C-alpha cells in the first residue's frame, strides 16, 4: 500500500502515537473516519504527524523523500 511506502520511507519520524515526548512521530489515521456518521470527501490515506524538536529542515527533507516514495508506489 502507498501509505505503508510513505511510512516505511521515513527516517526521522518514528511510528506511533505521541504521548507528549520530544520526538517526531507518524501514523495512519484512516480508521478514525470509520466511526464518523459523515464521511470525509477526499481520497487517499490520512497520515497524522506529531512534530517534535528535530531540525525543521531535516524533518521537511524526510517528509519530501517519503512523499516521493508514496508517489513512486502509487504509480506502480
Describe what this molecule looks like in 3D.
The protein has two helices and three strands; from the N terminus they run H-E-E-E-H. It has 76 residues and is α+β, with helices and mostly antiparallel strands. It has a three-stranded mixed beta sheet with strand order 1-2-3, with no helix packed on it. It is 37% helix and 13% strand. The model has no long low-confidence stretch (mean pLDDT 90). The N and C termini lie close together (10 Å).
Offer a quick outline of the entry:
With 76 residues, the chain is α+β, with helices and mostly antiparallel strands. It has helices at 2-9, 56-75, and strands at residues 14-15, 25-28, 47-50.
Distance between the termini: 10 Å
Counting H and I runs of at least 4 residues, what is the number of helices? Answer: 2
Q: Can you tell me the residue ranges where pLDDT is under 50 for at least 5 consecutive residues?
A: none
Helix content: 25-40%
Q: What do the pLDDT scores average to?
A: 90
The biggest beta sheet is recorded as:
3 strands, mixed
Using brief descriptors, characterize the structure shown.
single chain, 76 residues, alpha+beta, three-stranded mixed beta sheet, 13% strand
List the helices and strands and how they pair.
Blueprint (H helix, E strand, L loop, with lengths): L1 H8 L4 E2 L9 E4 L18 E4 L5 H20 L1
Parallel strand pairs: 1-2
Antiparallel strand pairs: 2-3
Helix pairs in contact: 1-2
Amino acid at each position: 500500500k502507498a501509505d505503508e511506502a510513505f511510512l516505511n520511507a521515513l527516517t526521522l519520524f518514528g511510528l506511533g502515537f505521541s504521548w507528549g515526548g520530544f520526538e517526531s512521530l507518524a501514523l495512519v489515521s484512516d480508521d478514525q473516519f470509520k466511526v464518523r456518521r459523515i464521511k470525509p470527501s477526499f481520497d487517499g490515506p490520512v497520515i497524522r504527524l506529531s512534530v517534535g524538536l528535530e531540525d525543521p529542515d531535516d524533518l521537511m527533507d524526510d517528509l519530501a523523500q517519503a512523499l516521493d516514495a508514496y508517489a513512486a508506489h502509487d504509480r506502480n
